[in-house]
Structure formats: C-alpha cells, structure tokens
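Outer membrane protein
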Amino acid sequence: MKRSTLKLSSIATAVALVSVMASCQNKENTSAPATKSESATVTSAEKIVYVNSDSLLTKYQYFKDLKTKLDAKSKTAQTDLASKQQAFQREVAQYQQQQNTLPADQRASTEERLARKQQELQAYSQNAGAALQNEQATENEKLYDKVAQYLKTYAKGKGFKMVLTYSKGNSAILFADESLDVTSEVIVGLNEAYKADKK
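Tokens:
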C-alpha cells in the first residue's frame, strides 16, 4: 500500500482563489468620481494581491495538524498491514515445510485456505488505501473551504478585487512585486481563526 500523504499540489489548489471579487466596491469605483480626499487614480494592481501557497502550507497550523493526523493514520494502517502480511508469510512458510508429508486432500484444502487468505489480504490492503484516500479528499475539501471563506472575508475587508496564489515552480505568476504579497497577514489571520475554532 502506498503511503498516503497530502499532496502539496492539491492543497495548493486550496489557495488558488483567483476570483475573489468585491463587486459592490467595483460598482462604487466605476460610478462615483474620486473626491479630493480619495486617491485620484486607483490602479488595478492595487486591488490584486497574492498568497505564497508554499509558505501558507508550512505555517498554517490547521494544515500542520491535519498532516500530522493523516500521517499517523497512514502509519497505523501500514503497520497493521505489515503485521498481517508477516503472519501470512509465516503460514505459507510453515505449509511449504510440511507439504511433502501431508496427504493430498489436506494439501489441497490448505492451499485453498492460503489462497483465500491472500485474496483477503489484498482486498484489505486496497480497502485501507481507498479509505485513507477518501479521508484525505474530504479533509482537502474542508481545508479549501476554510481558506476560501477566510480569503473572501479578508479581500472584502481590504478592498482587494483578486487574490492570486504563487507557488515556486508551479505558478502562473512569473513576477509580482513583493508589496502585493499578503501571505504573512493571511497566515496570521487563518491561525487566529483556527485557534478560536478549537476553543
């Protein structure tokens, strides 16, 4: 059974919220002329920010707790499977040592029983792997929802029209001014919200 771990690319998708638009503010900006107290020109770049998903994944406590939980479940499943496989191998080895001394009918019944056990072991391995993958998918969805909901509120509060995601080696952003990077602020907010949820 392959080790079930969180895939960074699938979690990075959780932060790829490229359409967090504050439509009501957009209408205000296009319909109302700028007053003396407001900035005369508002560039679109000032309304677009980005989050570094690599940093988010290493510093968001909810993600770290989730990874620890899933890693522990995966390790437990692997240990359990290894134990069952070793017990089966011992049975097979014991049969191989005795098979020449057993009557034909007993040999046939033992071989049938071992074949059934092998199939059960394979089914158990597949089911355990599928269960871990399903749980991982469910948890990824929860993670995505948490980040999406937070960023929606965050963007509206700050007046941002779009929040992009940046990930080294896997990003559509080739260059972005560091002044547009709101990762640290987002991580602080997410961790505070997660801490409040746990209480």
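Residues 1-45 have pLDDT under 50 and may be disordered.
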